[in-house]
Amino acid sequence: MSTSNKGFSIALLFGVAAALSGCGESTDELDDKLTHQANMSFINSLDYMADFHVKKRSISTGYSGLFDSDNIAAGDVEANAVGSRYNYSYKVINNMINLGVKDSINANKEERINTTLSNNDDLWVIAWQSSGKRALSVIDKKQNNTADVFNVRLFAYGEYDVSIDDKKVLTTKKGSVTAFLAVSNCANGLKVANQAIDLCAGNFGASYLLVVDSNGKRVMAEE
C-alpha cells in the first residue's frame, strides 16, 4: 500500500472512531444513550396465584423460552393482588419483548403477548379473564392527584354502566381503561354494574387503577 493510501486509511479510521464516539463522548456516555429503561408493575386479577415472565423478543424464535424460570419478573403474585415493580433494561434496537403469565402451581394455565417499549415507559401489566378466556393487557401508568377526592381509572372485564353518586357517567369497554373519574364518597359514591366500589382503603387525593368485573372491584392499585 502506498504512503498516501496508508494516510487516507488512518484518517478514515479516526473519522469513524470519532463518529462512533459521538464526537468526543465517552464509551459510558454512549452506552447510556444506547440503553433504555422500562418499569413494569404486575396486576394479577385471576383467581389463582401467578408468575409473570418477561423476555426479549426474537422474531426468529417467537415465544421460545419465555416461561423459563430465569425469566420470572414477579413470582407467586396472589390472586387479585399487585406484584412487585420490575425494571427492564434493553438496547435501543431490542425494544420488543414477550410477556407471559402462568399459574404458579398448574403450569398448563398460560397466556402470552408481545409489545414494543419506549424509553422510560412506566407500565401496568394486567392478567385478567373473561368468559373463561385468560388475557394479558399492557397500559401506561398515570396520575391525576387532586385534593379531597379519589381519582380512579377503571380497567373492565366487560361493558358495565358506571355511576357516581347514582348518576351514570359512562359505560366501560371490555379490556379497556377509562379516563380518570373523581369520587368524593369512598364507601358507595362509585358503582360499577350497580355494585358499590369500596375505595376507603385508599387515600383521598391519590390516583388509583381499579380492575373491575360484573361483581365489582377485583384489584385496587395506586398509580
Describe this structure as you would to a colleague.
It is a single chain. This protein has 223 residues and is mainly beta. The chain contains two helices and 16 strands. The chain has helices at 3-20, 27-34; strands at 35-44, 50-56, 72-77, 81-91, 96-103, 110-116, 121-130, 133-140, 150-156, 161-164, 167-171, 181-183, 190-192, 195-196, 207-213, 216-222. The strands form four sheets. The protein has a four-stranded mixed sheet with strand order 4-1-7-8. Strands 3-2-5-6 form a four-stranded antiparallel sheet, with no helix packed on it. It has a four-stranded mixed sheet with strand order 12-9-15-16, with no helix packed on it. Mean pLDDT is 89; it is low at 1-22.
Overall morphology: globular
Low-confidence parts: 1-22
User: In angstroms, what is the radius of gyration?
Assistant: 23 Å
Number of helices: 2
The fraction of residues assigned to DSSP E strands is: over 45%
Average pLDDT across residues? 89
Order of SSEs? HHEEEEEEEEEEEEEEEE
- In total, the number of strands is 16
The side-by-side strand order for the widest beta sheet comes to 4-1-7-8
Structural descriptors:
four-stranded antiparallel beta sheet; 47% strand; mainly beta; 223 residues; four-stranded mixed beta sheet; single chain; 2 helices; disordered N terminus; 12% helix
Write the layout of secondary structure elements.
Blueprint: H1 3-20, H2 27-34, E1 35-44, E2 50-56, E3 72-77, E4 81-91, E5 96-103, E6 110-116, E7 121-130, E8 133-140, E9 150-156, E10 161-164, E11 167-171, E12 181-183, E13 190-192, E14 195-196, E15 207-213, E16 216-222
Parallel strand pairs: 1-7, 9-15
Antiparallel strand pairs: 1-4, 2-3, 2-5, 5-6, 7-8, 9-12, 10-11, 10-13, 13-14, 15-16
